[in-house]
Amino acid sequence: MKSFVTLLKNELKLNIRNMNMVIFAVIMPLVVLVILGFIYGTKPAADGTAYSFLEQSFGALCCISICAGGLMGLPLVVSEYRERKILKRFQVTPVSPAKLLTVEFAIYVIYCVVSMLTLFLVAMLFWKIKIHGSLLLFLGSWLLTMVSTLSIGLLVGGIAKNMKSASVIACILYFPMLIFSGTTLPFEVMPVAMQKIISIFPMTQGIQLMKATFLGLPTENVLLPVVVMGAVILICFGISVKCFKWE
Amino acid sequence: MQTAIKVEQLSKSYGNLLAVDKISLSVKCGTVYGLLGANGAGKSTTIECILGTKRADSGTVSVLGFNPQKDRRRLFQNVGVQFQENDYQPEIKVSELCDETACLYEAPADWRKLCEQFGIGGKVDNAVKNLSGGERQRLFIVLALIPNPELVFLDELTTGLDAKARRDVWKILSELKDNGLTIFLTSHFMDEVEALCDEICILKKGKAVFYGTVEQAKKASGCEKFEDAYLALSGEVVEE
Questions:
Q1: Is B211 on the interface with A (CB under 8 A)?
Q2: What ipTM did this prediction achieve?
Q3: Threshold 0.80, pTM exceeds
Q4: Domain range spanning residue B226?
Q5: How many domains is chain A built from?
Q6: What are the chain A neighbours of B100 within 8 Å (beta carbons)?
Q7: Do B91 and A14 touch (CB under 8 A)?
Q8: How many domains does chain B have?
Q9: Is A86 within 8 Å of B88 when comparing Cβ atoms?
């Protein structure tokens, strides 16, 4: 446990010093929020809805940091450590692969938490958003979305041959999810055929779930997203620990 | 006397290239063992097979009584390693690298004291990338000693060090040996091998061509100077 805390502290410091994630996972979502805030203010999402546009978008905004951490940050840092033979140095110490992966995983969880909290505070202070649904259910769906996306990132970092292929895979996952999962374009405006295809992204499921729980909308099919994301988490974690390569 | 490392009939090839060919060796506890040979003779591959970071094609390895691949986590509580090529996180500081290494062990040594001993005590707040080559080399020896090991592997330990720093490192290693540390090293400096090693093994194209002490090497080759003996035994032809 002591070694976990020390590793986490050191690796977090290094990660912040690098600034990439501070910009992409914390500052960028805030910038998007502020832009949306200036455009829409406290206007309702549509005529007659009880909730504002910002409230409707809040779940999607939280996903920007989840995407950045899970699909860019995490796979790249793990594959970089392997390529630079930093993992090889760890191989000749008593540390377990699971512990190393958990440390890196935890760093991106911290970024997602910080991003979600800052988004909520700013949106609450300036545009008075509030949760219409259930806080607990919203946090639950946020957590599920985050852990499932991060575990995909862990898998990519764990099995990619080198940094270059990790970065290619990360891009292939990152941009479609960022654009098509409903993070930037609203899910509702897409053609039905496309909606069906992108429903397999855990992020699409997550955003729908977050939106429903945040706004207090009826959730007809909770089981499907929970099962999809749960399966993704188990499979990705299992494979990345089992197939872990030191070099 | 107990055996720290026992290697029997170790072989490893990369594709068609036979890098290590049926090497057997045994290192007694509390001694310094030198693995010598030209570049590409198979030294690093041998070390990596002993450590378990590479899988041998055949042969058996036992380190402190453990199988390095099966008992990795227990073995490396008591073994320190300095690889020939070392890398580190891009922005990491000396203190962070030491701290991160020390936290992995049950009973680590005081890394600040080790840094002092190796003459980099004033550099702990610097970024590792800003150290000079020699300072970085000493830092990686420090990292190998942080576990408070019974056994330490040093691959080309003093490459990049100036004459004074080399002597300092020898002195510290000799003291550690007197306190019971077993050292397995590779080196291209024959004065260093002569000063430190109790026993040596010379590799040539993956095969062990000589086992014994420095004195025995001189006798076997009929050379007065150890460097000449090494060249004769390893079959390196020097144009006069």
A1: no
A2: 0.92
A3: yes
A4: 1-78+182-240
A5: 1
A6: 6-7, 10-11
A7: yes
A8: 1
A9: yes
